[in-house]
Design a protein that fits this description.
six-stranded mixed sheet, single chain, 5 helices, SCO1/SenC, Glutaredoxin, Thioredoxin_domain
Amino acid sequence: MKLLNLILLLLLLSCKNSSEKLPILSYKIDSTGNKTFYSIQYNEGFSNHLNKPFSTKNIDNKVFIVNFFFTRCPSICPPMKHQLIDIAKSLKNKNHFVIISHTIDPENDSIPVLKSYSESTGVPDYKWQFLYANIDKTQAQASQFMTSFKPKNDEIDFYHSSYVSLVDKKQSIRGFYNILIGEEVKRLKKDIAYLLSE
């Protein structure tokens, strides 16, 4: 009887909605210790690599991942780029998915530079958007994704993260993944597929 109960419990747990594995993570803790949830927003001041304005409308009803990078990056960005290309190409004919990459070096990453960088990926524009904004707006956007960046003393590199944020169709953050770790990339791909099927 105990074995039967254990089997039933395992079956019940396996049938649970897998969204429980993807909690909503876009929240702040207020002064009383309560969670205040928010959705990702893009206000005025963002342009993509095609020099077109980018706003919250561009992410409406889309699953997307976000990272922060710069084109001259000598450290983590090249392997991150490789992984993002693989993710983009693995999701064939998925019109409801996009990668969003924010430059953290607007002084050097002009729109033409971002366009050239985009072309080097071989990924269509509708699947991968490279965003430009002034440094204050980019810092504020990074805060929405619970990350940050700052220049290193050498004035060449930046302290920034190899994590990407996964966001659902309602603009809620559902996960953070270090895409320099193979197992995390596998988990990210599965979680993207799950959110696209919702």
